[in-house]
Amino acid sequence: MAQLPNLDVHDRPNAPTIAAGAFAVQWLQDIIDFWYHMCPFSATINTATTVIPVTQDWYLLPADFILDVRNGALVQTIAGDPLSYKRAVRVPLQKWLNRQLSTQKSTNVLYPSYYCVFGDDGVPTARQQRIHFTPDPTVAVSTVLYYYQLPPTLGSTDKPKFPNDYVCIEYVRIRALEWARVYDPGTAQRFAEKVVAGMKAAGLMNEPEDDEIPFDELTFRKRTSQALLSQNTYAWMGP
Predict the structure, then answer these.
(1) 8 Å CB contact between 111 and 77
(2) How far is CA 185 from the centre of its chain?
(3) What is the pLDDT of residue 210?
(4) Residues whose CB falls within 8 Å of the CB of residue 143, separated by 6 or more in sequence, listed in order
(5) Is the per-residue pLDDT at 113 higher than 80?
(6) What residues are paired with 65 via a beta bridge?
(7) Looking at the predicted structure, is the pLDDT value of residue 233 above 80?
(8) What is the domain range of residue 183?
(9) DSSP string of 60-79?
(10) In this model, does residue 14 exceed pLDDT 90?
(11) How many domains does the chain have?
(12) What are phi and psi of 47, to 5 degrees?
């Protein structure tokens, strides 16, 4: 592809078989990981089921976690009942802290309603993130998290799942020419960033959105039908 005999000898010492440590496989992994970090909405959606113990409001996210599906954390509100799950709302850290403080003196049975994703440098080998919930559960709570998943590590015989083969092939070709000092370092990265910008501008690889502008769920929480009848329909405009 790049007409580089030295690279071919390294990557295919027993042609036509690709070696496990081939540079081309590593470069292909680089571009796949880059795409999924920049456009996680095109990645595979996976689920993680975890139990939050009493007096703890967090757990470590999976090692292949990229981004949570918006409000994609489900919380079981009746122990053992698979039909009692409700969605927790993702909030920024500042609002998460406010809600954490507002329930710190409560003596009632509490189930998490909000969550926020934190970094965690305390796991030096994995650098996994943590998901924190509030209010702190007063009983053990089962949760299901929907999240966008990093692609698995490629092997020499694997075919990556990606919507455009040309982009992957061209990136690997440019990286090979960088390796041979034909192109300047960073040429492949600039190519990748340019294509990402073009795909985003075209509306590709975006998360499916509602066909209407929803109310802010932090302000306009769902209430009973009687409360909805008495709600001021002009309140969204502010005072």
Answers:
(1) yes
(2) 29
(3) 60
(4) 49, 50, 51, 52, 59, 73, 74, 75, 76, 88, 112, 133
(5) yes
(6) 149
(7) no
(8) 5-39+153-201
(9) EPPTTEEEEEEEEEEEESST
(10) no
(11) 2
(12) -125, 150
